[in-house]
């Protein structure tokens, strides 16, 4: 009994060992199909089909040059014969390519070829293919080289498609019809030529060869598209300069919004808090604070309209002259006094005679500096402001004690960076940090009056 049980167990184990570890036929076929999927996609996938259309388009573009070359060379040498005709076709192809290269020097050719390459050529880096006209001779020469390659490869693929595919079909069906092609194949097979395949195998091999050549030439063109149709170094530099100009404009708008609207919101918030604290104890002060809130809000709306005018690119004569200048510092100081901020101001005479663009930037620097005092030192902290003007140099110095400093709000820290950017635009210098005795904070800005950029 034990021997039978052992034998049964051994048989079951053997059966399990024979069927368990190895994959079944279905899994093996699935793995094989998965391995063949990538090369099949490279030869017959959507990208390969688009590239074939792109190459056939190149062959169609080659036809006018080739026909003109055939007419010209045929008129020069009218001799007729099989070998002569073959040489005539090759010579016509050699003559048609320089003619195509000359016509590709027209600037609009790059725009057309770039659009076709993006849509049908499926380049690896489509965003690097230009779709605008060539504006330099370097770009025209590169476009000319691309055009010649497109027409040459397109002519090869078109010729193989038009002549090779029907011939392959005839080879595939030759055993059914007893065609002369089948008889020729049998003639060479009977004489022991090893490389002559049966008609169907020969036809399928020819179709595979045409497909592989088409996919290879299409992939080669796609790889060269960014090199020959991409922007030149001069165009890349011009694009970088345009992007830098856009970024500079965005930074300017960001500074305007931060300094004008941010200052107004900070002042309104502090004035509202002060009015709420003394609303019943000191109604007169609360009334004055509410009046200051209204003035600050109206000024902020006016400055916001100016910034929005820049965003909409409205009349530059209005938007470039909009905004307060150093002549309005007295109004700014009076507005901030409504928050309880005590400012000891020393303003040099002649600030109202400074250039408008320069004066607006300097005003924003003073405004942002005072707003930072409100935000970080508190409305009760005393501040000292000195604006001096000597020998064509404007000096702004703002100090406040550190004893009442408060933590910065989340997301802050753009104010000093904006002041530094404004000083750099005016070709000046900016320094900020603790005072020498460590008891206060000092902001110092030096701006040459003639340095407005």
Architecture overview:
The chain has 453 residues and is of the alpha+beta class. Helices cover 68% and strands 9% of the residues. It is built from 15 helices and five strands. It has helices spanning 2-19, 25-44, 46-76, 82-103, 108-121, 137-172, 174-177, 180-190, 199-229, 233-277, 283-311, 316-319, 329-337, 356-377, 414-425, and strands at 342-347, 382-390, 393-401, 429-434, 440-448. It has a five-stranded mixed beta sheet, with helices on one face. Helix 4 (82-103) packs antiparallel against helix 6 (137-172). The protein is elongated, with a radius of gyration of 41 Å. It starts with a helix and ends in a 5-residue tail after the last strand.
**How much helix is in the residues?**
55-70%
Helix-strand pattern, N to C?
HHHHHHHHHHHHHEHEEHEE
Order of strands, widest sheet: 1-2-3-5-4
Gap from first CA to last CA: 106 Å
Low-confidence stretches: 1-20, 404-412
Shape: elongated
Count of distinct strands: 5
What portion of the residues fall into strands of 2 or more residues?
A: 5-15%
Rg, nearest Å: 41 Å
Largest sheet: 5 strands, mixed
Class of secondary structure makeup: alpha+beta
- Average pLDDT confidence is 77
User: How many alpha or pi helices?
Assistant: 15
